[in-house]
């Protein structure tokens, strides 16, 4: 009888240990899943570490730098400004340094040609009065400076470098413009490589004395709420507008979070009234864009 009782006790202990071990494994598995999906996070020992995908953290990450560091890089204070949710649009102030802007302009100047637009029926480039600027393309990953800029764009948008097209450099002289248009495609030809255009990063390489704004005529919101409203041209006051400033970068999304096309992303380049406008465009695709 004593041996039988001891056997039962040992059996119960063994069952309890197995149950506890199984529960620990299940608990560990659940914790790993929660960490993987970002639902649960491990506290950091530093209170200053930025949170993933936190625009405010990205915007303010360089504010505490010394003035000497900012002067060495040729940039002022860097911060991100949310200007619209329909379309989703953000301005990253001082995204590029003055030296980077000048480098891109000088690299593109010898190769500038009249800008074209994409024919929605054939998918081919064609001349149009809709777009009166001149431009050229710089191959993705062409040199270290361009690779650094493209990496910065990927960090800003959370879209891999490999999903981006080559940089397009554009030059608008007085009177030149780009009529309202979408950056997404309505044909199948242009989506074969990389799929649909999901977002655009428009970098301003020069200051403009008057005109040349990027305007979103179909945007929803209080257009006059932007702090630069009084400095806009008449064209710029026809919607939500961004006034070009050397080094600033405008990110806007051509697709909604549900992957549908966003008609509020309709945008235009207002005519330059005084000065010269230089800009650089990076289009981002849903999938990898093969160069």
TrEMBL record:
The chain crosses the membrane at residues 20-42. GO terms for cellular component: endoplasmic reticulum membrane. Its cofactor is L-ascorbate. One of its GO terms (molecular function) is procollagen-proline 4-dioxygenase activity. Its EC number is 1.14.11.2. The lineage of its organism: Eukaryota, Viridiplantae, Streptophyta, Embryophyta, Tracheophyta. It is a single-pass type II membrane protein. It comes from the Eukaryota. This is procollagen-proline 4-dioxygenase. Keywords: Dioxygenase, Endoplasmic reticulum, Glycoprotein, Iron, Membrane, Metal-binding, Oxidoreductase, Signal-anchor, Transmembrane, Transmembrane helix.
């Amino acid at each position: 009888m004593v041996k039988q009782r001891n056997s039962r006790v040992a059996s119960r202990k063994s069952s309890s240990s197995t149950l506890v071990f199984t529960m620990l494994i299940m608990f560990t598995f659940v914790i790993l899943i929660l960490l993987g999906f970002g639902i649960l996070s491990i506290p950091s020992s530093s209170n200053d570490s930025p949170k993933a995908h936190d625009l405010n953290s990205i915007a303010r990450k360089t504010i505490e730098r010394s003035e000497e560091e900012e002067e060495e890089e040729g940039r002022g204070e860097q911060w991100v400004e949310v200007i619209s949710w329909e379309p989703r649009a953000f301005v990253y102030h001082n995204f590029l340094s003055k030296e980077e802007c000048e480098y891109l302009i000088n690299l593109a100047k010898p190769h500038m040609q009249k800008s074209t637009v994409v024919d929605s029926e054939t998918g081919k480039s064609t001349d149009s009065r809709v777009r009166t600027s001149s431009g050229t393309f710089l191959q993705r990953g062409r040199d270290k400076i361009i690779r650094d800029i493209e990496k910065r764009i990927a960090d800003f948008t959370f879209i891999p470098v490999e999903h981006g097209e080559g940089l397009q450099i554009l030059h608008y002289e007085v009177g030149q413009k780009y009529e309202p248009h979408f950056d997404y495609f309505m044909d199948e030809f242009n989506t074969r490589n990389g799929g649909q255009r999901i977002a655009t990063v428009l970098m301003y390489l020069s200051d403009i004395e008057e005109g040349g704004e990027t305007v979103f005529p179909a945007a929803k919101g209080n257009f006059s709420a932007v702090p630069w409203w009084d400095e806009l041209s008449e064209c710029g006051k026809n919607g939500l507008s961004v006034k070009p400033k050397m080094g600033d970068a405008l990110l806007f999304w051509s697709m909604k979070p549900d992957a549908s096309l966003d008609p509020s992303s309709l945008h235009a380049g207002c005519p330059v009234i005084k000065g010269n406008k230089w800009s650089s465009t990076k289009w981002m695709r849903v999938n990898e864009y093969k160069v």
